[in-house]
Amino acid sequence: MSKKSKSKLPRGIDHYLCEDYPQELLHQLNFGVAVYQPVENGRDFIFVDINPAVETTDRVERTALIGRRVTEVFPGVEEFGLLDVFRRVMESGISETMGPTEYQDERIRGWRMNHVYRLPCGYVTAVYEDITKEIDNERALLASEERYRLLTESSLDGIWDWDLVRNTLYLSPRWKMQLGYQDHELENHIDTWKDRLHPDDQARVLEHLEQYLASPLPIWREEFRLKHKRGDYIWLMARGSAVMNAENRVVRILGVHIDINRRKQAEETSALIQRRLEASLELSKNAPSVTEREIVQTALEQASSLTQSSVGYLHFVNDDQETIELVTWSKQTLLHCEAAFDSHYPLSKAGVWADCVRTRKPQIHNDYQSMEGRKGYPEGHIHLLRHLSVPVIDGNKVRLVIGVGNKTEPYNDLDVQQISLLVSDLWRLIEKKRSDEKLKQAAAVLESTQEAVTITDTVPRIVAINRAFSEITGYQEEEVLGCNPSVLKSGRHNQDFYRQMWDQLHNAGHWQGEIWNRRKSGEIYPEWLNISAIHDDDGLTTHYVAVFSDISALKQSEQQLERMAHYDPLTGLPNRILLFSRIEHALQRARRSKNEVALLFLDLDNFKVVNDSLGHPTGDKLLKLLAERFANRLREEDTIARIGGDEFVVLIEDVVTESVVADIAKALLDEIKEPIQFEGHELSVGASVGISIYPQNGENATDLIKNADAAMYLAKDSGRNSFKFYTPKLTEEAQFRLRLEADLHVALQSDQIVPYYQPIVSVADGSIVGAEALARWIGSGEEPLMPGRFIPVAEESGLIDEIAAVIFQQACIDLESWQLPDHQSFRLALNISPHQFRGFRLVDEITNKLSKFRIPVDRIELELTESILMQDTEQSMMKIRQLSEMGLTMTIDDFGTGYSSLAYLTRFPIDKLKIDRSFIQKIHAEDENEVIVSTIHAMAHNLNMQVTAEGVETALQLAKLRNLGCDYYQGYFFSRPVPANAFHRLLRDNAVKD
Fold first, then answer.
1. Contact partners, residue 791, CB within 8 Å, separation at least 6
2. Would you say 502 and 447 are in contact if contact means Cβ atoms under 8 Å apart?
3. Can you tell me the distance from the alpha carbon of 799 to that of 797, in angstroms, rounded to the nearest whole number?
4. H or E segment at 128?
5. Which superkingdom (predicted)?
6. H, E, C per residue of 378-445
7. In 218-291, which ranges are continuous DSSP H helix?
8. pLDDT tens, residue by residue, 151-207
9. Is the distance from CB of 888 to CB of 912 less than 8 angstroms?
10. Which residues are within 8 A (CB) of 288 and not within 5 positions of it... i.e. 6 or more apart?
11. Is the pLDDT of residue 134 over 80?
12. How would you write 445-485 as a 3-class SS string?
């Protein structure tokens, strides 16, 4: 080699070592190993590495060989073919063993056997076996014909002499010592040798021996394993020479047993290294395209294969180091295992195999069956004979445990080394895969998030943005990379704002808040910004991550929500929340100025009739119109608020006298009474107003509104369309109403609400033709409570439907109990409230109720209010028609008081009209009432309807009705409403009189 070529060679080995090169393992081996790098396409090879065993046996320093060519170190090496073997192995990848070669130079003398392999990275490695002694022994054996001289010259090897004629076998003490026995412990017999042959070798060796005996060669040579006294097997090489008789048949074989266990271990180790490297390469190559579980399964199968184990498992160890998770078993394990396993269980329940977690070191148990009570496998699990478990430690914690078991031979340190290297590679791949997955997820989140993300260095310069950043700011990545984030600065914040932001960021590592920035278009917009500092392992700030979102829409929503929170959406008037706020502010001002404040609680009269008659859309339009009228009537500094369906509150500040407040109340009532022309209807509503004054009637908004509400109820009870001032007595009335509602709940649960019956009488002959069931409250008093006392409370509290259902049920029971004859003409009238009528299952409910009683359907009459006809006309018509077709009599109650169009009567299957009592009571005094009654009567008869007059109390009223040709009447003139038993007697007496 020229000086020029030498100068190009690096001095250190690191340059030559390829990826996956097992340097650490090779340096631990106690037999000679050298690694070569091919140069000039394999015409020569360079020493890359030698292990300490070469330095010892060949008396050469490692530094004297590394980087030098083989042809330079061994002149004439081409002549005995070593380079040819190197080239073939390099090109084919097939290992070769070069026969005995004699070396003669200043460093190496003697015979060597070369085992040559190719490494995955393309290097060639040679395992050197010094066989000088074997060659010498063989030469001596062949040269000598006397056993004693052979014993003298070959005393280090086991001598054997097999006399085939006498079938005797001599085994020297050294032969037996090779297997760990004293001379007297083994019998000199051929079976001593045969019985100790390894099961995998026995057939081959005996077959080869038979072939040798049949066709002897000069030397019989065979390699095999014999069982050692300690239980394992060792490798031996038998060399023998045959003694022939006159017939040229073998009569005797003399030979030696040479211990080749170290060489075989070297070969197996080298092959194992090769397989382990191939396994690691396979893992690395396949890792990107398979799942973590598949990587683990592959590694476990490789571990089982490398150690020739029939059992394999892998567990992850949780961070608490107290709980483990079973990941998988090897496929061969599952073939012979019927046990059920929990995927998670505490380490305390694991067997002896988990000692590697506790000790943090690999554990070998070659006598597993002796560990009673610590085996750690459930019933049905394959029985273990031997076991090896290896932990992986990372970050000072055990991360996973891999275990193999039931190798046919004891586990050794080489198994530990191979499994440790393999499982370390596995953990590295798992960590990388998890890291890649996290990065992939983070990248996906970064790109998919609707929030903009900016990453800067500490200068600061923008180093990365996401898609949302461009969408929000209008800047593309290439426009802002390397720029200062101030490119977005809007100019709305002063330097103090930014200084405080950076101070907090430096001190706390985080800042968040609202900030105004500028888009590329120049538009200024608000954003919610979070900035966090990113630190390295030493705690130094390396980057800043800013996450922000455009809150322009949120700002607009806040404004809308602010209005929604404080203003009534229908009328645009302040709502209860804003009203309370304004009242409290007004009271604060009044306390300072010693002025009074007035609250007017206004509730529309008969607004429910409008809603029920003309529908909610009409009612809503009426409320909006009235709200405009109120606002126009009041001063600008006054507040009018809508706090409920038809409830309004007026706040008046700086009140001088109560008369001023009274004038305002009158003005509002006049405004409300003004008729309204609306969609072909002339609407006229009234209102009841209650008034409370600060400080006389309350010190806060809650008390003032409560007391004004109580005064409003007084106005309503006093005839409506009026106003009342609050007095302390009204509080008692309000409390009475609350008690009444509570008592009403109890009354319904204890059957205190019962039907009373008022007869319906024929005008022509005075016979009872029916009755109307009316609700009465039978309490602890002597007289029942009249409907006028509790029905308004029931309507306000939502109990009216429950009362109607109770009356309907009990009336049917009473009617059935009276057992009226079929020929007797009688109908029981039951009231249906508007809310009941709107019920989705009204027809089905009435059908189900009537089906439970043995009463003819045509004995039932249903009374509906006029307002029902005006609600959802098509649906109302369909329901009334269905009820009529069932055989029920349909009656319009209180006719003449609502807003129904007379044309509607022609469209509905109505059987009767009930003229409201207000017309009957004045029929004898006012001609117009008589005209109205006469008109209703004539119209009804023209439409084939019958007429019943309500509230008949005098003979004169009855005479007028008789003259008009009215069909039926009811009222106190004939009978008050009476209980069921009293009505039954009345009915019987009337029938007898007839």
1. 775, 800, 803
2. no
3. 6
4. strand 124-130
5. Bacteria
6. CCCCCCCCCEEEEEEEECCEEEEEEEEECCCCCCCHHHHHHHHHHHHHHHHHHHHHHHHHHHHHHHHH
7. 261-286
8. 534 456 888 999 998 889 999 888 999 999 999 999 999 999 999 999 999 999 999
9. no
10. none
11. no
12. HHHHCCCEEEEECCCCCEEEECHHHHHHHCCCHHHHCCCCH
Residue 116: φ, ψ to 5°? -110, 135
Closest by alpha carbon to 384, among 400, 401, 364, 399?
364
Burial of 573 (0-12, 13-18, 19+ CB in 10 A): buried
CA distance linking residue 79 with residue 98, whole number of Å: 14
d(CA 264, CA 276): 18
Tell the residue number behind the tokens 């009571």, with chain if given. 921
* Total residues found in the chain within this entry: 994
Q: Which domains does the chain have, with CATH numbers?
A: 3-130 (3.30.450.20), 134-266 (3.30.450.20), 290-439 (3.30.450.40), 449-556 (3.30.450.20), 568-726 (3.30.70.270), 750-772+799-993 (3.20.20.450)
Asked if pLDDT for residue 147 goes beyond 70, the answer is: no
Burial track 52-89 (b if 16+ CB lie within 10 A, e otherwise): ebbbeebeeeeeebbbebbeebbeebeeeebbebbbeb
**Please, are residues 610 and 604 in contact by the beta-carbon 8 Å criterion?**
no
Q: In this structure, what are the phi and psi dihedrals at residue 410, rounded to the nearest 5 degrees?
A: -60, 145
Tokens (6 digits) for 766: 């005075």
Task: Please give the distance of CA 757 from its chain centroid, rounded to a whole number.
Answer: 62
What is the arrangement of strands in the sheet containing 387-394, beginning at the earlier edge strand? 344-346, 323-329, 311-317, 397-405, 387-394, 363-365
Tokens in use for 468? 């949302």
Q: Are 89 and 96 in contact (CB under 8 A)?
A: yes
User: Is pTM, for the whole model, over 0.90?
Assistant: no
Q: What's the mean pLDDT in 837-846?
A: 80
For residue 418, give both structure tokens.
């191979």
Phi, psi dihedral angles at 50 (to 5 degrees): -135, 150
Tokens of 802: 């429950």
385, with CB counted inside 10 A (0-12, 13-18, 19+), is middle
The rounded distance, in Å, linking the Cα atoms of 927 and 896 is 16
**Distance, CA of 590 to CA of 695 (rounded, Å):** 9
Round to whole Å and give the CA distance between 452 and 863.
67
Give the Cα-Cα-Cα angle 760, 822, 757 (nearest 5 degrees): 25
At 642, give phi and psi (nearest 5°).
Answer: -100, 120
Q: Which residues have a Cβ under 8 Å from the Cβ of 355 and sit 6 or more positions away?
A: 363, 389
Judge whether 641 and 705 are in contact, CB under 8 Å: no
Buried b (16+ CB within 10 A) or exposed e, 856-892: eeebbbbbbbbbbbbbeeeebeebbebbbeeebbbbb
CB atoms within 10 A of CB 94: 10
Report the DSSP pairing between strands 363-365 and 344-346: unpaired
Using CA atoms in the order 453, 458, 460, 461, what is the torsion angle rounded to 10 degrees?
A: -70
Residue predicted with more confidence, 773 or 438: 773
Confidence class for position 927, pLDDT limits 50, 70, 90: low
Q: Are 237 and 205 in contact (CB under 8 A)?
A: no
- Measured CA to CA, the distance from residue 42 to residue 467 in angstroms comes to 54
Got the DSSP string for 560-624?
HHHHHHHB-TTT--B-HHHHHHHHHHHHHHHHHHT-EEEEEEEEEESHHHHHHHH-HHHHHHHHH
What is the distance, to the nearest Å, from the Cα of residue 138 to the centroid of all Cα atoms in its chain?
77
